[in-house]
Write a structure and sequence with these properties.
It comes from Nonomuraea spiralis. The protein has 18 helices and 41 strands. It is of the alpha+beta class and 794 residues long. It is globular.
C-alpha cells in the first residue's frame, strides 16, 4: 500500500467513477497534490455493478451539456490512458406504448435538438429495424438518439485513475475515513484507519457512504440507498453487438447487449429502500439477495417487449444497492455548512453517464472557487438541514428511484414524505379546497379546486386558475406566500455589504423596498430578490422558496469580514399577498393605516385588525397590491380578518405563475441563472450606474441571447415550458416558462432566444415546437400585459 501523506492540497474520499473523475480533472487543471482514498478497491462500492448506460439528454440545457462532455471524454480516454473503457457509441432507442408517452418523447426530441443532441422521432416499424428482436405491434413510436452509448464502469474508473496518477495524483486503497476535522467552519483534515491527513479541501465522493461522511463534518448530504436490480441472460438469437440501448419506460425496463445476451433492468415505481441502519462494513464488490418478487414488474414487462426472454436462461441476478436523492438529481458543490467540503454523490443510478461532466464541473468549482456554469439543478444547496432526516429520506426514495421512467407530466408533484412544512394557515386553506404542491418541503397552494388528471394538453384545473386570475385582475385575491425565504441582515456594515452584493442601490431611506439581483463574477444571476431597509443598520431580504440555503450561503460568504450578521427568519413570518385593483380599499376596511400614502416600493408597520404587520407595496402579479409580513403567531387571526371582509378570492401559485408571465416578470431558475446577465434578462434598470457591485464588469455586456415574452397566435395550443423555438426551421432558443393567459385568451411564455436572426434582423416571430407540431408566435422585449406598469403604479 502507498504510504499515507501527512498533508495534501485535496483529499478525495471514494475511489468510484465520481471520485476518480474529480481527481482526473483536478490534475488536468494543474492541481496534482491530490490524494484519493478508497476504503476497499477502486470501483468496489456502487460503480462496479452499474449497468453502464450513457444517455446524453437531461432536463436542462446546462445538465445536457455536462453529460455530452461525458460522452466526449469516454470516447477519447482509452487513447489517452491506454486503458480500455468499453465505450461504444451504439445509440439509444426509447419507445412508447401510449399516445401520452409518445407526446413526452416528441417533446424530448424537440428539446434534444435545441440542446445540440441529435434526435429522431421514429415509427414502430423503424424502431423494429433498429431493434429487430423486440415486439413492436403494441408501440406508438419512439425516439432514436444516435450519440448515446454504453461503457464498462470498472474500466472507465481505472482509466480515469490512471490518467490522474500519470499527472501525480496518489490513489490509495484499503484506507477507511473515520473522521473529519473541522475548525472555524472549515475543513482542516481527515482521520483515517491509517492516520491523519491535513487538508483544507475535502471532496466527498463516497457514494452510499457520503451521507455518513457529511455527518462526520456536520454537513447535510441528503441521500438514501435503495435496492436496484438487473439480470444478465444467456445468448439470445438475433442479439448482436451493435444493438442500441433500448428503453421501454412504460414497461419500467431497459435493455443492452452483453456477450450475445441482454442486460435487462429497470426502475420499478415503488422502490425498496436499503441500509436504514447504515451501510455495513466491509461492503466491497458485494450484492444483496435476489428479490424476484420486487423485480417481477420489470421482468414481466421486459418479456412483453422481448418475447424471447420468456425462454432465455438467466446467467446472473444483480441486486446492487445505489444511493438516491429526494428529487432524483445528483449532489454537487461546496456544502454551505463547512467551507472546503465538497460533494459529488447521489447519482441516482446515472453515475456513469454523469461522472465525466460532474467530475470536471466539481474540479473547476474547487480550482476557481465558484461554479463555472449553471449547476443549480445539481447544487447541494438546493436542500436544507431538514432534508437530512433518515425517515423522510427513506420514504421519499421509494418514489424517486421510479422517477427515471415515470411519466414526466408538466404538473407532476412528488407524493411521498408529505406534508412536511406547513403554513400556519394550512388547515384553513385545506378547508377551503386547496390543491397543494410542494416547494422546499413547504406545502403550497397550486389552486383551489379538486385534483385532476395529468395531461400534456390544457389541464382540467385550468378553469379554476383562470377564475383566480380574473378575480385578481378585476377585483382582489389573497395568496398565501409564506414559503418565501426570509432573512434579516443587521449590523453597522450591513449596507456596505449589500452595496457590493446587490446590483441595485440599497442605500435608501428606511421603509423603502429595492428589487435587485445578486450576481457572480461573470455577471450572471445567483439570485434575484427584494431588500427592504427596516432600520439604518437592518434589512429584510426576501427571496424564492427554493433558494433558502443557496442564497443564505451566497450572502454569508459575500459579507466577508464586514460587521453584519445574517439570520434566517423564514419560519418566523407568514406572508399574505393581497393583490388586485380593489386591494387598497379592502385593506383600508380592516386597518387605520393610510394605504393611499403608500407609494410603490414602500414598506411600513401597520395595524390590521388586532394585529400589527409589515405591509410592503410590491407585486409579482402585475397589479396594485401589498405583501403582508405577519408574525407566525398572528397568521390565523390576520387571515381570518382578511377573509372576513368578504371581498377576497383565495388564489394559488398557478395563478401567480400565469400573471407573472403575462407581465413579463422573470423567475430565478427559469429566465435568470448563473449564465444570464442583467443585459440578457432585460434588467439593466436594476443596476447601479456607478457600478461597484459584484459582476458589474460583465453585467451589461452585449448578450448573445435575450429573455423575451412570447404570445402564441393559435388560442387552442397549450405551452408548458421547455418547448423549442425555431426561426426558418432552425433552433433559436427555447421556452423557459409558460402558462395559459385568461387575460389574453391564449398561451403566453417567456423564453431565451438568440439576439439576431441569421439575416441580422431582430427576431419578431418564431415557431414553437409543441411535441412536433409547429405554432407561430409573436416575441417581444415588452410584456404583453400592461407594458407601462400603469396598473402596478395605480
Amino acid at each position: 500500500m502507498t504510504s499515507l501523506p501527512s498533508r495534501a492540497q485535496v483529499v478525495i474520499i471514494g475511489g468510484g467513477i465520481a471520485g476518480c473523475s474529480v481527481a482526473y480533472h483536478l490534475a488536468e487543471l494543474g492541481w496534482t497534490d491530490v490524494v484519493v482514498l478508497e476504503q476497499g478497491r477502486l470501483s468496489c462500492g456502487t460503480t462496479w455493478h452499474a449497468a453502464g448506460l450513457v444517455g446524453q439528454l437531461r432536463g436542462t440545457e446546462s445538465m445536457t451539456r455536462l453529460i455530452k462532455y461525458s460522452t466526449d471524454l469516454y470516447a477519447r480516454l482509452e487513447a489517452e490512458t491506454g486503458f480500455g473503457t468499453g465505450w461504444k457509441q451504439c445509440g439509444s432507442l426509447s419507445v412508447a406504448r401510449t399516445p401520452e408517452r409518445m407526446t413526452q418523447l416528441r417533446r424530448t426530441a424537440a428539446g434534444a435538438r435545441n440542446h445540440g443532441v441529435q434526435a429522431e422521432v421514429v415509427s414502430p416499424r423503424e424502431a423494429g429495424e433498429l431493434w429487430p428482436v423486440m415486439r413492436t405491434d403494441d408501440l406508438v413510436g419512439g425516439v432514436w438518439l444516435p450519440g448515446d452509448g454504453k461503457a464498462d464502469p470498472s474500466d472507465l474508473t481505472q482509466a480515469l485513475a490512471r490518467g490522474a496518477q500519470r499527472r501525480g495524483v496518489q490513489v490509495i486503497e484499503r484506507v477507511r475515513v473515520t473522521g473529519v476535522t473541522v475548525r472555524d467552519g472549515a475543513v482542516r483534515g481527515v482521520d483515517t484507519s491509517e492516520g491523519h491527513i491535513e487538508t483544507e479541501v475535502l471532496v466527498n465522493c463516497a457514494g452510499q457512504w457520503a451521507k455518513e461522511i457529511g455527518r462526520m463534518a456536520g454537513a447535510t448530504v441528503p441521500l438514501h440507498s435503495a435496492e436496484h436490480y438487473y439480470v444478465v441472460t444467456e445468448r439470445i438469437p438475433g442479439v448482436r453487438p451493435d444493438l442500441p440501448v433500448l428503453r421501454d419506460p412504460d414497461g419500467y425496463a431497459y435493455f443492452k447487449e452483453e456477450v450475445g445476451g441482454l442486460v435487462v433492468g429497470g426502475f420499478e415505481p415503488d422502490a425498496k429502500p436499503w441500509g436504514m441502519d447504515g451501510i455495513p462494513h466491509p461492503f466491497e464488490f458485494q450484492l444483496l439477495d435476489e428479490d424476484w418478487d420486487q423485480f417481477a414488474i420489470i421482468m414481466e414487462n421486459a418479456i412483453q417487449r422481448v418475447p424471447a426472454l420468456d425462454s432465455a436462461g438467466v446467467r446472473m441476478f444483480y441486486n446492487g444497492p445505489e444511493s438516491f436523492t429526494p428529487d432524483n438529481m445528483f449532489l454537487l458543490g461546496e456544502t454551505p455548512e463547512v467551507r472546503g467540503l465538497f460533494v459529488g454523490a447521489g447519482f441516482n443510478s446515472a453515475g456513469i453517464a454523469s461522472a465525466g461532466g460532474a467530475g470536471r464541473a466539481l474540479a473547476e468549482w474547487i480550482v476557481n472557487g465558484a461554479p463555472t456554469g449553471d449547476l443549480w439543478p445539481a447544487d447541494v444547496r438546493r436542500f436544507a438541514r431538514w432534508a437530512d432526516n433518515d425517515t423522510w429520506l427513506r420514504d421519499r426514495v421509494t418514489e424517486t428511484l421510479g422517477l427515471h421512467y415515470a411519466m414526466s407530466w408538466p404538473d407532476r408533484e412528488l407524493r411521498t414524505a408529505r406534508p412536511l412544512r406547513r403554513s400556519p394557515v394550512h388547515h384553513l386553506l385545506e378547508r377551503a379546497g386547496a390543491c397543494f404542491g410542494s416547494k422546499m418541503g413547504w406545502e403550497r397552494v397550486n389552486y383551489f379546486g379538486p385534483a385532476t388528471p395529468h395531461t400534456f394538453g390544457r389541464p382540467e384545473w385550468q378553469p379554476y386558475v383562470d377564475a383566480e386570475v380574473a378575480a385578481c385582475r378585476n377585483a382582489a385575491a389573497l395568496f398565501d406566500q409564506t414559503a418565501f425565504s426570509k432573512f434579516v441582515l443587521k449590523g453597522p456594515e450591513a449596507m456596505e455589504a449589500l452595496q457590493w452584493l446587490c446590483t441595485a442601490d440599497v442605500d435608501v431611506e428606511v421603509g423603502r423596498v429595492v428589487y435587485t439581483g445578486l450576481l457572480n463574477d461573470r455577471g450572471g444571476y445567483e439570485s434575484d430578490l427584494t431588500v427592504t431597509r427596516v432600520a439604518a443598520d437592518e434589512y429584510l431580504i426576501v427571496t424564492g422558496s427554493a433558494q433558502t440555503t443557496k442564497d443564505f450561503d451566497h450572502i454569508s460568504k459575500g459579507l466577508g469580514d464586514r460587521r453584519a450578521v445574517l439570520v434566517d427568519v423564514t419560519g418566523a413570518y407568514a406572508v399574505f399577498g393581497v393583490m388586485g385593483p380593489s386591494s387598497r380599499a379592502i385593506l383600508r376596511s380592516v386597518s387605520r393605516a393610510d394605504f393611499s400614502a403608500f407609494d410603490f416600493g414602500t414598506s411600513r408597520l401597520v395595524d390590521l385588525g388586532h394585529a400589527t404587520v409589515r405591509a410592503t407595496r410590491v407585486t409579482y402579479v402585475g397589479e396594485l397590491g401589498w405583501e403582508l409580513y405577519v408574525p407566525a403567531e398572528f397568521a390565523v387571526t390576520v387571515h381570518e380578518t382578511l377573509m372576513g371582509t368578504g371581498e377576497l378570492t383565495q388564489a394559488g401559485h398557478y395563478a401567480i405563475e400565469a400573471m407573472r408571465i403575462e407581465k413579463g416578470y422573470r423567475a430565478w431558475g427559469r429566465e435568470l441563472g448563473p449564465e444570464i446577465t442583467p443585459a440578457a434578462a432585460g434588467l439593466r434598470f436594476t443596476c447601479k450606474k456607478s457600478g461597484g457591485f459584484r459582476g458589474a464588469r460583465h453585467a451589461l455586456e452585449t448578450p448573445s441571447r435575450r429573455v423575451v415574452s412570447i404570445v402564441l397566435d393559435d388560442p387552442a395550443a397549450h405551452l408548458w415550458g421547455g418547448e423549442s423555438l425555431l426561426s426558418d426551421g432552425a433552433p433559436v432558443g427555447y421556452v423557459t416558462s409558460a402558462a395559459h393567459s385568461p387575460t389574453l385568451g391564449r398561451s403566453v411564455a417567456l423564453g431565451l432566444v438568440t439576439e439576431l436572426s441569421p439575416e441580422g434582423r431582430t427576431l419578431e416571430k418564431v415557431e414553437v415546437d409543441v411535441a412536433g407540431d409547429l405554432y407561430s408566435a409573436q416575441i417581444s422585449l415588452k410584456a404583453p400585459y400592461d407594458p407601462t406598469s400603469a396598473r402596478v403604479k395605480a
